[in-house]
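Structure, all two chains, one model.
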Amino acid sequence: MGFSWDYLFQGFVTALSFQNLFWALVGSLIGTLVGVLPGIGPASGIAILLPLTTVLPPTSAIIMMAAIYYGAMYGGSTTAIAVNIPGEASSVCTALDGYEMAKQGKAGPALSISAISSFIAGTLSLVGLTFFAPLLADFALVFGPPEYFALMFMGLSLIISLSGRALLKGIASMAIGLMVSLIGQDPLTGAARLTFGTAILTAGVDFISVIVGLFAISEVMINVEQRISTISRIDIGSWLPTWADIKQCLWTMVRCTGVGFFLGLLPGCAPSVTTFVAYDLEKRVSKHPERFGKGAIEGVAAAEGANNATSTAGFIPLFSFGLPTAPSMAVLLGGLMMYGLQPGPMLFATNPDFVWAVIASMYIGNVMLLVLNLPLVGMWARIVVIPFYILGPIIVFCSVVGTYSIRFQAFDVWVMLLFGVIGYFMRKFGWPVAPMVLATVLAQMLETSLGQALLMSQGSPLIFFTKPIAAVFMGLGLLSIGRGFWLQMRSQAPEVAMDEPD
Amino acid sequence: MKTLRSADIATGFLLAMLGLLTLWASSTITTTMEHRLSPRALPYAVGLLVLFCGIGIAVKAWRFRGPDPEIKWPDGVGIKIITVSLASIGFYNAFMNLLGLPLATFLYITFSIWYLNRAKWLTALLTGLICGIASYYLFIRLLGLSFPEGFFFKG
C-alpha cells in the first residue's frame, strides 16, 4: 500500500463529482445533527442510516457515512458548550471550559474555536493519513494488552492534574467512578459483581448516564436553585474569536493533533480518552493552568482538536488492517463489507479508486463542516440567552431522550437522575467531577487489558515493566502520581480547592 | 453541614461506609474456577481505595484548623423548587412507558415551564406542544428509535 499523487488526484476528481459532493454535504449535515442530539452518537447515527445508503453506489455511500461520522464528532461540542450536555464522553473536556466561556458570554468564540480547531486537526491528521498510512498502521500492531494497560494507567494518573489541590477528593471521585464501572458482569469470567442480586444491575451502568447526570442535571439543579434568568446575562457580543484567541490556540491545535492522531491509531483508544490526555497536556504546558476549568479557550481547542484528530486517525487501522478502533468504526467496517469491500492490506491495491476518493472526500468534508458551521455559530450561541425557565426543561428533555436511547431502559434515566443529585452535592462540597468521568470511561479497557496481560505473563505484574513501551507509560503514570502526592504534602491548603493549579 | 469542614467529615464517613459495603459485596462474588485476575480482585481494590479515601478525607477535615468556608445552601423556596423539579423528572421517566414519549414530554415541559414561571402559561403550553410533536416525528418516525409511543399516538 503506497502513496501516489496520481491516485490522490484521481481521488479528488471522484470526490468532487456533483453526486459525491452532494452526499458528503448531506452526510455532514446529518452528522452534525446526530452530534448535536445528545445520546445518539456517531455509531448509532451511522447504524440507523446505513440501510438508507443502499440505494447509492459504494463510493458515494461510504463518503456519506464517513461524513456522518466526522460531522457527528464535530456536532457533539455544540450542546457541551451551549448547555453543558456532553452527549458523548469525548465532549466532556470541551464542556469543562466551553460552558464556562458560554456563561461569561463567550459562547460564540468557544463554538468558533471548536470549529476551527476541529478543522485544523482534522486536516493535519488527513495529511498524516494520506502520506504516512502504511508506516503508521504498524504502530497499532505493536500495542498488546500490557501496553494498553500501561496507557490506561497513565490515563488514570491524569486525575492528579484534574483534581487540583483536592487530591484526596479527586482520588475518591475516581474510585467511585471505577466502582460504578465494575457493577455488572466481569468481562473475562462473566461473574456478576456488585449487583446485590438484582437483575437490572447485571447489565451494568452505562457511562453516558453518569456523564449526563453529573454535568447536565446537576447544572439544571444549581440554576433552578439560584433562580437564574438566563445561563449568560452578558451580551453575546462577537460570535468569532479574536486573532489573539486564534494565535493563542495555534500551538495547542498542533500539539493536540499530535496527541489525538497517534493515540487514535490504537484500537480502543477512543476520543473520550485522547481528549483528556490532550487537555491535561495543555494544562501542564500552559503558563496559566489556573484558567483551565474556568473558561480557557485553549481547553476547548485542545479537546476538540484531539477529538477530530483521533477520529481521522482511526481510518488508518480500519483501511490498513480492517481493525475498527471505536464502535462507530466497527459500524463503518460493516458498511464497507456490505458493499463487498474487504478492508485490509489489499484494499489499497485492489480498490485504489475507492480508498483515495474517500480520503479526498474527507478533505472536502472538513472544509464543508467549517463553512457550514461557522455561520451557524451565532444561532447556537444564542441558546445561552434563552430564558432558563424554558431552557432548563428542554435541557432535561434532551438529557432524558439521550440517556433513554442508550439501551431504551428507564433504568438508565434513573441512574442519570441519581448522578445528577450526586453531581449537585459534589459541586457544593468542592469535589472534582472530571476524575469520576475519566474513570468510568477508562475502566472497562483497563480491566480487560489487565486481565489479558496477566494471562500472558502467567500472573506476573512485572510484564508492565519489562516491555519497553509499557514501561515508559507506567513510568510516566507513576511520576505523575508521585509529583501530585509530593505537591499535596507540601501544600497546607484544605481539600477545598477544585480545579486549581497544582 | 453548614461548612465545608463538617461536609467533608460527613462525606468522608459516608464514603468509608460505602467502601465497607463494597468490600462486603466483593466477598459475595462467586467464582467458579481459578483466574489470573479473580473477579473479586478489582472490586476489593476499589472498595479498599474508597474506604481509605473516606477515612483520609474525614481525618484531614477533622484535623483542619484554618478558615472554614460556608456552603451556599438554597433557601426554603430554592429547596422546594429543586424538589419539585427532581420529582417532575422522576414522573416524566416513570410515566414514559405508559404515556409514550410525546405525551410524557408534552406534560413534563408544560408543567416545568409553568412551574418555573407561572405567568408564562401560554409559552409553557406551546413549548410543550412543540417538544412533544418534535419528539414523535424526530425520534420515533424519522430516526425509528424504539421509544414508547403511548396510547395516544398508537391509537
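Residues 82 and 147 of chain B are 27 Å apart (CA to CA).
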